[in-house]
UniProtKB/TrEMBL annotation:
InterPro entries: ATP_synth_F0_gsu_mt (IPR006808). Belongs to the ATPase g subunit family. GO terms for cellular component: mitochondrial membrane; proton-transporting ATP synthase complex. The lineage of its organism: Eukaryota, Viridiplantae, Streptophyta, Embryophyta, Tracheophyta. This is Mitochondrial ATP synthase subunit G protein. It is found in: Mitochondrion membrane.
Length: 122
């Protein structure tokens, strides 16, 4: 146990040295590559305007997403009506999708409880 702690400590120290040595260069490179997204001058008013634009753009996209969802739902309804003709591949895909939804639900529950598996705080 103590040796693994020393190894972990050593790796954390190496990572810290690497970041302190190369972090500034990476930061500058990242800003240079994405300078077209930087708003000058960065004022509070401009930030408020951008946040409102994002909000209302997202709100405007709701009907398009709703239409895509209803098309998917209609497809599932058609598959359910023809469930006698359902292939094994389609059933497998549906099962995997259901499993993925359940996994996301469980993950959300765990995160919501503060990353505890029992629901009790220790």
């Amino acid at each position: 146990m103590a040796s693994s702690l020393k190894t972990l400590q050593s790796k954390a120290c190496q990572a810290s040295h690497y970041i302190s040595k190369h972090g500034t260069a990476y930061y500058k490179q990242l800003l240079e590559q994405n300078k077209q997204y930087i708003q000058e001058p960065a004022t509070v008013e401009k930030c408020n305007l951008l946040s409102k634009q994002l909000l209302y753009t997202r709100l405007a996209s709701i009907p398009v997403r709703k239409e895509a969802f209803s098309k998917e739902l209609d497809y599932v309804k058609q598959l359910w009506k023809k469930k006698q003709e359902l292939k094994v591949e389609d059933a497998g895909i549906a099962a995997l999708f259901g499993l993925e939804c359940f996994a996301w639900f469980c993950s959300g529950e765990i995160i919501g409880r503060g990353f505890t598996f029992t629901g009790y705080y220790v």
